[in-house]
Predict the 3D structure of the following.
Amino acid sequence: MLEYVLFLIREDQMEDDMRSSMIRTQSEIGKIFIAQGTLVIASLRAFRNRFAESISPGEVDLIFSAAERETAERFEGALKDAHEKGVLKGAQRRANNFKATVASGKVDMAFNLVNQRADKYATKVAAAKVTAINESTRKTLNEMITRGFREGVSHTAMERAIRNRFHEFQAGKPQKHIKSRAHLVTVTEYRDAYEEGHHQMAQEMMHEGFIVEKYWQTSEDDVVSDGCAENQDYGWIKEDDLFPSGNQHSPRFPGCRCNTLHRIREA
Ligand SMILES: [Zn+2]
């Protein structure tokens, strides 16, 4: 029986593969956040005359709805681009790894299949990701606006707070060395796509008749989450199985530092 050959990825490897795309995506997402903030402030003006009155949660939701709608196409475009590039680069990286071990013709065939589906995959996943990101923004706004109304802050102060918040989404807090939400979203989405590319490539190799296994590698320090540690403890598993957390591959959450390792051998 042939030995497995093990392949790693590292954060810096991913960034090398995609640095310029990631910079463009982060800039675009930052601009989208700023555009959303401007639209939210415009919607909020409708409530100017009744600012001291109570406002229903449904009305607060409406304040963000216009921003969500008007930025949807642009946001989905940015994330589709990120996921398509990430999947292809991740698949390419694994294809190169696999070629060190197995016949390159089979690897090329597998990569072509991933490549053909990347556009469709990215379109589907982008819509879901935009929904999740907007959901988190809506929650933040709900809290800000509801608290503002309760505490009776002025309309002007509320506008300023909202403008500042969306600016932070774009730029972070440089003086406090806090990275922006645009940065976190970009890194999370590219990592997810890149590892998805590894997974899709590994799955195609299984369809080509190889045995491919994966392993959840944490950074093995004392801030690793319980869920990630449990995934690592599970050991090597077949590529099409799920880790105990229910994930097909890392990252498990924004900021998760884990990697999925692979090994392949002839059946
Ligand atoms: Zn993790």
